[in-house]
C-alpha cells in the first residue's frame, strides 16, 4: 500500500477510530500458553516484561 | 511408599479420563510424550464397570463380562449420576445392570458386594471412589511408584455439584484432583502438544462420540489458548446406538432361523450386546466381522457374519445424527462450516470410518478432519482425552496448590475477547482487501506481528489498521461457462474444480472492512523490502501499533485509546 498524496499526520500516526466492545468469555485453564497468560495476569506483567524473566 | 520430602509427600500425577462407558489413565513418559497406560489386563480403554462375586471385586473388562451372568451385582454407566439427585437422572443405560435407586439426596445401587447374602446400598460416590482406586492402582503398578494426584477430564456440561462430587470421590480414593479439565479441550491439547504442531489461530470443532452420549464443542484457539464458543450434547447418541443396529440385524437373522427373539431374554440380550459391540468395533478396522454366541436363546448356538457395506447401510440414520450434532454446534456458535479449520474426532465411536468420511463432505477442502480414516497422523480418538489430561497434569504438578487455584480462578479465566478481527487493508491495483491479523474471539491482551510486502518501487508505505468482519459470499452458478468473478484474485485457483460441480453454488469467505482504527505511514522504504507491523491490544481495548521497515531503524508508533 503506497502513501496517497497529501496524507500527513503528527509523527506519521493518526488514530481514526476505536475498537468495538469486547465479549466477555471464559478461557479454558489448560495448556502452556494459558499458564503463561495466568502468570502474566497474576503478576501484572506485560508480554515484554514476561519475556525478560 | 510415598517419599517424604520436607514433611509433604511428593506429588506424582497422571491424567485420567473418566467416562460412563470406559476410562483411561495416561502419563508423560520419560521421552516427554503422553502415553496411555494399559491396566494389568492389557486394556487401555478400561470399561467403567464394577462387579462383585462372593465379596470379590472385579473391574474393567472382567466386570463387563459379568453383565451376562451377574448383572444384578454389576454397576455400569454411573459417571453421569455423580452429584445428581435421583429425579434428574436417566436410568436407561442401567437396564441391564444394577439399577440406580434414590438414597437421601443422591443415587445409590443395591448390590451384594460382600461374602454375605444380604445386599448393601452403595452410593454412586462410593462406586466412583472404588473405580478410581482401581485406576490409581493400575497406574501405580505400571509406574512402580504411588500415584497420588490426577487431572481428570469432565464434560463441558458438568455442574458444580458434579465436579465437587467427583473431586470428593477421587480424594476418597487417595487421589488429589489438581484440576478438572473439559474433555474437548483435553482433546485439542493432545493434538496441539505434538512436537510437529505449531501454534496457530484456528477454530476447532471437537466431536466427542462416546458410548452412551455424544458431545460436540466449538473452540477458538488463539495463540495457544482455548475458549469454548458453543457446545451441543446428545444424551442418547453414541456407540451404543450403533451397537443396537448390529444387535437388531443379528436378532432378526436369528428369528428367521429359529423363530425366537433372543432380545426378549435378558441373558440373550446381554450376550448380544457384548458380542455386538465387539463386531461393531471390528467393522471400524476391517470390512468383515463375525459373531458367534454359545447358547444365545433356547440353548441354540449362533454364528454369523456382517460386512461393512451392509452395516453402513443400516446405520445411515445414526451416522446422520452424528454429523447433525456437528452441524448443530457450529450453528450454535453462529459460525459457518467454512470458518472451521479443524475437526477433531474423539471418543470410541469416532473410530467408525464412515462418520469421518461423511464429515469430510460437509466441510471445505481446507478443513482438516482429524480421524484415523481421513488423516494418517491422527491420534487414536479414544486416547485424546487421557493424553490431554496427562499433559496438563505434567504442566501443573510442580505448582503449589494455591498457585493452581489462583491460576484457574475466574478472575483469571474471565477475559475480554475481540468481537471483530483486526487487520490491515492491502491495496493491490484497484481492489482493497482486508487481511486479518488478530482474529475475532482472540483473548486479550494479545499481540501479533506480521510482515507485509512493500510496493515494488519502494517509497512511502501507508498502513491502515481496521476492524473487519467476515462474510459468506455465495456465488450462484452461471448457466454458461464460468467467467472470471469480479472481485478478489484468489478465485483463480478454484476455477479448476468448478467444471464438475457446476450445479452447486460456490460459497466463500470474504472480508469486509468494518471501521478504520488507525493510519500509519512508513516513509522511504527501499524497493522490494518488507514492512513489519506489530499490534498490541490491551485488556481495556486500547491499542499500541508499531510499524517499521524490516531491518530499518526508524519505527512509527502510536497508541489508540479505548472507547
From TrEMBL, chain B:
Residue span of region Disordered: 475-507
Listed GO CC annotations: cytosol; nucleus
Biased composition range(s): Acidic residues: 490-506
Pfam family, one: HSP70
Skewed-composition ranges (Basic and acidic residues): 475-489
GO MF entry, a single one: ATP-dependent protein folding chaperone
Sorted UniProt keywords: ATP-binding, Nucleotide-binding
Protein name from the UniProt record: Hsp70 protein-domain-containing protein
